[in-house]
Amino acid sequence: MGLEWKNLWIIIITLNINLMEINKLVDLNVFRTAPQLSKSQIKKLLEELEANIFNSDWITIGIMAPCDTKAIEALKSITAKYSSIKFANLGSLQAEGSVFLKGNQKTSNVFIRSENGLGEGILLTCQHNDESNKSSTFGPLPLDFFS
Question: Average pLDDT of 55-72?
Fold first, then answer.
């Protein structure tokens, strides 16, 4: 009986997450893994995200992915979309299994490490030189969000 209730609970949680309206970036805060988004949701979220990106001094990017190549592809999709965002040494990045990649636009540094138990998606933090402006983290966004 206990296992049946647990399975029912998992189904209910999954249905609630899938039925949840995602209209603003803040709606993503409840997710551990990026949800699937429609084209209209991506368009709406991208407009909000770009307003934040363009009002920040620099960004940091965290990418949770099932492998290093998917993480690097996601990072490259961001740099292809925004010419002002560049990172160094992408060719030397390598890690086994599930990974977390972190890129800092201000320093151009990128690091990658193997890490199990993560969700999947892109976390983007808008940073400010003036420390009185709080940084804001958005996501998780799907790995193909910027493609």
Answer: 96
